Request: fold
Amino acid sequence: FDYPNQHVINADTLYLPQGAVVTMDLKSNNVIHSFWIPSITGKTDVIPGHDNQKIFRADQVGEYRGECAEYCGTQHAHMNFNVIVLDTNAFNAWVSNEQQSAQNPTASLAQQGQKLFKGSGGCTGCHGIVGVNLDSFQATKTSSGLEASALVGPNLTHFAERRLIAGGILIASDGHNWANDPACQLVNGQLANKDNCGLYQWLHDPQAVKPGNDMIISSLSDTQIYALIAYLQSLK
Reply:
C-alpha cells in the first residue's frame, strides 16, 4: 500500500484515518483481481492495463479484513490483508513513525542478520529498506543502482510492526506483531520451537507455505534464519 501524500509504503495492513474520504488507485501487474473490504466498502475490479479508483470512508475505529474477491489463480484464497482504522491522532502518529528510516540494529545477532540481508542472503534483489538499500520511500534506484521498480517484494522498513505475511497465511500469534510474537522470541540466539514461528517457516521454505508465490530464497541454515529473524524484529 503506497501513501504518496504521506511518503509511506506499507504491506499486508492498510491503515486508514477514521472518517476521512479515501481515494485508492487500484493497479494490477498480472491478472484481474477485485479489492474488497466487506465491512467497509464493496468490490472494485483491479484490471491489468486499466487502473481503477476506489473512493470510500471508514467511520468506525477498529480492525477489519480485506480480501481479493475475484478468482485469480491457485492462491486466490490466500490474498487477504488487514485493515486498521485509527482516529486522527493515532493515524498521524503511525504516519510519523512510518516516515522514518530503519534504525541500524544494536544487538549482535540482528547485526549479523542485517549483514546477511545486504549480502549473501540475496534479499536486496527483491526487498527495499529505507536507510539500508533505499534512500527514501520515493527512491528510483537502490544503493546498488537497481531500479527501485524492480523490487517486487514488499518494502520491509518497518516490518516488525506488521502482523501477517504471505497474504495472511502466517499471522503473529495472539494478536501480536512480529516484533513481540511469543512463538518467534529468540533466546540465546535460538528458537524454542521453530516450527511454531511463522517467520521461521517463511524463511525456511516459502514455497511450502504458499506454493507458487514470488519469494525465491536460497537455502539458509537455521543460524542464518535466526539472524534474519532478529534483524526483521528490529525493524520497528
Remarks:
- DSSP finds five helices and 13 strands in the chain.
- The radius of gyration is 18 Å.
